Amino acid sequence: MSSYHTDSGGQTTTTTTTQITPLIWFDREYIHSNTGLLNLVVIILDLAAFIIAQFFYQSGRVAFFCFTSMSAFWISLTLFALYAFHVVEKLHYVQWLLGEFAFCLIWSMFFFVSSLLMLIAGRLHIVAAIFGFISCGIYGYQARENYQRYSRGEIAQGERSTTGPTVMA
């Protein structure tokens, strides 16, 4: 038994249009969006975790926790500013979602390990560990969201519309 593939001889085209705003401007709506609020929460958690960890004797585990929380704070704050001022939209050709996915995944693992180390230390280190575990969960959630958006072919900011395939004879 054989199967045959027939081709109508037509040409299939798919049109993708990306709409961006070429201006850099502050967007208050981003701060009130779910993504913006989640980023603000994680920025505050990172800073709080760092401040709490500063009260402990400086050991290797505390140093790693401080590195994790402070680097996460600065990177998240930078990304928040880039989104709030629509710089990400202006640079739409950069794979922002993939970069954010990698950052969130790596720092989620960093927070998990450093929070476990703080938890093992006991005493007041547990408070810092709790902030670290919450940050770990938020970064893990953001990693999943960014990966799903990247898989769907979305851009980080702005609009992209795709019209379906059309066959031209």
From TrEMBL:
Is this entry keyworded Cell division? Answer: no
Predominant location: membrane
Membrane topology type: Multi-pass membrane protein
**This protein's record includes keyword Nucleotide-binding:** no
Q: Which residues cross the membrane?
A: 37-56, 62-85, 97-118, 124-142
Task: Please give the GO cellular component terms listed in this UniProt entry.
Answer: membrane
| InterPro entries the record matches | Marvel, MARVEL-CKLF_proteins
Ordered alphabetically, the record's keywords are: Membrane, Transmembrane, Transmembrane helix
Localization terms from the record: Membrane
Protein name in the entry: MARVEL domain-containing protein
The UniProt entry, under PROSITE patterns, shows:
MARVEL
Query: What positions does the domain MARVEL occupy?
Result: 30-151
Superkingdom in the source lineage? Eukaryota
Q: Which organism is it from?
A: Blomia tropicalis
